[in-house]
Write a structure and sequence with these properties.
By secondary structure, the chain is α+β, with helices and mostly antiparallel strands. Helix content is 18%, strand content 35%. The chain is built from three helices and eight strands, in the order βββββαβββαα. Strands 1, 2, 3, 4, 5, 6, 7 and 8 form an eight-stranded mixed sheet that branches. A hairpin with a 2-residue loop joins β2 (12-23) and β3 (26-31).
């Protein structure tokens, strides 16, 4: 369940950073390997913040680890921060966006993902997405 405001008895176990990398109306989606949580599903570049990291530093690290892309903090556009409650745990989800003028070379880390694709947000909603990503896409797009 997604909340824009902190719900009662919200106890976040961790914080996640995510990014819509966008080019010409398409967003980058990454295909999770079957051995990972939510394996076989598609998501945007994201990951857990490590202790001492700001959301921006964590996101730059995650994007580089997952795609090989290098951005600077000024490239990141903050969208929103939401609270997510799953049946077993709560977490905070920071959403960012990066606008690109041309499609870059993506170097998938096989430990993190098995493939990637560029899709319009509307077409992305037709895919097997990680939990709650459909609602996040609808919220922003």
């Amino acid at each position: 369940m997604i909340y824009k405001d902190i719900p009662t008895q919200f106890n976040p176990r961790f914080e996640i950073v995510s990014c819509y990398i966008e080019c010409n109306g398409h967003i980058l989606l990454l295909h999770r390997p079957t051995h990972k949580s939510e394996g076989g599903k598609w998501g945007v570049p994201d990951g857990k913040m490590e202790k001492g990291e700001t959301p921006e530093i964590a996101l730059l690290r995650e994007i580089k680890e997952e795609t090989g892309l290098l951005f600077n903090i000024e490239t990141l556009n903050f969208l929103t921060k939401i609270c997510i409650r799953h049946s077993d745990y709560d977490f905070i989800y920071h959403m960012y966006k990066v606008n690109l003028e041309s499609i870059p070379e993506i170097n998938i880390n096989p430990q993190e993902h098995q493939n990637y694709i560029w899709k319009t947000p509307e077409r992305a909603l037709e895919m097997n997405l990680v939990t709650d990503l459909d609602e996040c896409i609808k919220m922003y797009y």
